[in-house]
């Protein structure tokens, strides 16, 4: 049951009712068969979260104990999480699947990346207030959408590493719009694009404001480059092998001369490519335990697709907001 009984506890009710509220892009919780409840967005610690997620966010903040060897992938929704989960998993496990026989049995061929690298608040702590994580072998690969300032204390205080991936805000916005339209109940129809744009530009989106999410990690990465690796989806698309080598170095598992010679980097990129992953049976017809269909995580996987949906004016509105909010940070999209 993905929505635990204590969602309705007086404590949680008190917290929820004290938080500013906005209409969610999706009017109900995740489509898990068990419990689908109405959703609103709530402003918690400066960021907007779906109301049904808050209990899990708080449980994760209170209970998650980071290990120094943990690697945590952090993103805002729709920035390429699925791709990077696959790449991180493949990087971490490359020794196990190096020969061609093992390659055919690679877990990424039969399991969705979200099952192999689970989210803390959107999966593990949604299921259970204090989940048993002892089954994870070290080093643990986990993921979160939480903003830097809302991370569990132990994540910030321990020596664990964070890989942060962001994406051009216009493409992120268009990807979000498509995705949330899939999550909306049929009878509600699509969320009109101008309405979605207005929410996005006011910062009202899952784990938004988008700019504050990015800025938090950008700052952390410039202050602690050995702890936080800051990556962009567009750079991954433009030169994936350079970025994957950067990732491997950051994880403390650089590619050996032999791996570089025998095409390990290219092999990982081929396996994790949009075309390969999206064509796999598991990603065409499978579902996550939260009720989400695996195929929803693979749409186009391109840079610049926003121009096919947004007018120049709409684009300028996002550009204007981003310019204002990122001013002085040194960060540009
Ligand atoms: P689009 O909607 O623009 O196609 P997330 O994984 O954070 O939910 O992000 C989803 C976005 O990443 C979608 O973008 C999706 O198509 C894209 N994506 C998924 N797998 C990918 C891959 N292997 N390579 C590149 N992009 C991928």
TrEMBL record:
The keyword Transferase applies. InterPro entries: P-loop_NTPase, Sulfotransferase_dom. It is an enzyme of class 2 (transferase). One of its GO terms (molecular function) is transferase activity. It holds the Pfam family Sulfotransfer_1. Residues 68-330 form the Sulfotransferase domain. Keywords: Transferase. Its EC number is 2.8.2.-. Belongs to the sulfotransferase 1 family. This is Sulfotransferase. It comes from Eucalyptus globulus (Tasmanian blue gum).
